Amino acid sequence: MKLGVVGLPNVGKSTLFNAITQAGAEIANYPFCTIEPNVGVVAVPDERLNKLAALYNSQKITPTYLKFVDIAGLVKGASKGEGLGNKFLSHIREVDAIVHVVRCFADSNVTHVSDTIDSLSDMETINLELILADIDTVNNKLARTRTLMKGGDKKYKADEQALLQILAHLESEKPVRTMQLDDDGHALVNEMLLLTTKPVIYTANIAESDLGQPYNNHVLQVEARAKEEGAETLVICAKVEEELSTMPPEDKEMFLESYGIEESGLSRLVKKCYKLLKLVSYLTAGEKETRAWTITEGTKAPQAAGKIHSDFEKGFIRAEIVPYEVMLQMGGYNQAKENGKVRSEGKDYVIKDGDVVLFRFNV
Predict the structure, then answer these.
(1) Disulfide check for 28: which of 33, 68, 88, 122 has CB 3.0–4.6 Å away?
(2) What is the structure's pLDDT at 198?
């Protein structure tokens, strides 16, 4: 799963990306520093792994990962090619969700493309460019559909009506993700790879001096607008998170405590992204390795087994399940089995987050 980090130039995208991945993305105080997107992966924090590994004396712990893409700053007119906008929009098209960084801090040493800090205006600039790009895509699809309608196929008439509804929604400056669509509408939208269908986390980037303080007006405006869209919001100081990412664990803990913060912004961001993409983790454990595996909500046991190896799915017999909390209480798989806590589930079982699973298969 890929998440695109987007925003206007100089809002803290690359700083946040560095903090997330420690990948060393170039940072500079001028627009379009990032032309080709930087890509990095980050482990999804999961405190269950260490505790489970301790039960099994596992030699190795392997978390699950998300991929982040640092996409260059968009500017007004990007949908028409301004600031190499078309190229950047194509990068957004390839991600599964958007982390939209919004500048909520004042700093005379960091330039702003509009020479003023206006969080709502910044959000609207980015969103409007994505909407305009989608309008072009829908209009092109509508023109092709009307050409095909001349053949008399009624299907294309239904497509035309759906496209007109989508177009009207976009022209009212609303993202497609806020529409109520039927199955045919969803199929059309997926076919067009529209930008505004992607789920969004608005990441309000604040100054270090604002950490632990009541939210400033910029943050409150971001939260209110996100709520209107049904989107998620996260408040973070990218600069501090970058510093934290290089600290030893004990120093990091002391630093967070000094601000009265229980969990780093990065940890919260990764967890929110995981939830945004409707992902869950099931766990496998043994002497060699304890590991988390990423699946989407609603995945059945054979398909979950296929994440480990295709042979597991092809030859699936059953899944032996112990919920994580039960496994901890029992003190291990053998104890859970002795106490009748191991469930045997078949092909229709939907894997739950935190299930500790042993797959039985035969190939």
Answers:
(1) 33
(2) 92
